Amino acid sequence: MVSNISFAKDAALESCEAAVHGHQYAQAVNIAEQYAGQPEFWLCKGRAQAGLAQNAAAQESFRQAIALKPQGVDLISAHMLLGNAQEAAKNTAGALENYQQALRFSEQQDLRRYMRVAHNLIGEALYGNGQHAESLQAFQAGEKLAANDDERADSYIHEAMAYQQLQQLDSAIEYQLKGVMMLQKSGTPEQYAEASLTLGKLFTSKKDYVGAGKTYQRLMAYARENGGAFYEAKTALYWAETKREQGDMAGAEQLVKEAGAIALKLQDAELDEMLAKAK
Q1: 86 contacts 95 by C-beta, under 8 angstroms
Q2: 3-state secondary structure of 197
């Protein structure tokens, strides 16, 4: 009998999490409410409520989960999720307090993966609060715990963001370049492309037009080889901006024209908006 109850609970939790993953948030809430004494169901309910933009209700669900004294990863996740909801509600102080709790519990159990995530969440909250030097320290702590190229790339790009805000462009370029190189090996084409576009902008900010041009040229070739017409057009528009800053109006006009031809075929709202601004 006990094993049947346990099996039913496990199946219900799996269904709840699948519903959240499938954006069937109301269904997830209904499932979770049948197991009000279990912290993991409060976590599932809170995630569903966050998906429904019910931020205050989500925060309360995460607090209920914590009050039920979950163990291990569930406790860490509860503090992270509550912190995320508080950060979304612009309560940075509350978010940081919960991220610090998540970090403390992760350290107690020597869960390096969760320690890294907690450091990054702390860094992102501090960054959003304009505390860029402190955010850099958090991102650097997270980098030391990175276990693979994906995680290292994530750390490098976060560090580059902080360096840029601190007006340390050489360091920003160095870390963004390291991130781009990692993403070329292990990231998605979209991640690699977006990181490369940012790198090009950093070079342009430093007035290193050669570096910017090489970056955009590499990305343009990559987009063409991998069938990425969207990023081919987006790269052309970024490159056109750099050309204008150099005073090469003819070169900029040609790139905008190329982007326009692609945008006409793709009918993409983001591209259309960028193109309107570029003209």
Answers
A1: yes
A2: helix
